Amino acid sequence: MNFTNMTRELAKYDIILGSSSSRRYDLLKDYLNIHDIKVLKPSFEEDLDKNLYKDDPLKYVHDTCRLKAKSILEEYYPGRYSTKELGAIIICADTIVVGPENQIYEKPITQEKQLEYLTKFCYSYGKKCVGDESVKVITSVALIKDCKDIGDKTTLVIHQFEEITKIYFDPDIPVDIIKTYVDSKDGLHVAGGFKIQGSSAVLIKGIEGDYYNVVGLPVNKTYKTLLHLIN
Prior knowledge:
Structural class: alpha/beta
Keywords: Hydrolase
Mean pLDDT: 89
Radius of gyration: 19 Å
Oligomer: single chain
Protein name: Maf-like protein
InterPro entries: ITPase-like_fam, Maf-like
Strand content: 15-25%
Number of strands: 7
Largest sheet: 7 strands, mixed
Shape: elongated
GO molecular function: nucleoside triphosphate diphosphatase activity
Pfam family, one: Maf
């Protein structure tokens, strides 16, 4: 199926983004050519106990995404938002930033905490920057196809996957540059305290993996999973 045909097929579904992230919305619109997107914010509080996931941050983001999708499905089901002939496709995602010792870096709510994160990324982890010593961005994506069946019944098809991108921060960047970025408030309230698509790019000397995964949604794997769903 070519890109044009896929766009045509996706138009037969209501596309529901279970996220308030403007970045994910833009990635779906600009790169997957999905323009009619309904946005529902998950009611799940994202309050899982991280102590239960100390050795497995990937399971933490998987479970968080799954519970976000579950809350959207409970809000959406049984299809009261669906107006299209084939039903709906729900897209949920969650992104975390993880250090070399599997510690999870949440969204900093203060500039002091953001500065603490970024100086550690550059001057502690940046000096290592090899293999598993890198900072990792992990995104979990859940895609749910809610198909209309005869008699207004529905069939749910669920796919969930994780994508990992390694980030190599520059240990030689002057601390004043980090402070200037923090003062801009650009990365405040974002996982890890930085937006790779913003001016924090000057702090990063390389990545390994999907760039768009760091932005908030792995475009390549999301596209291939959508293709599988509609086929």
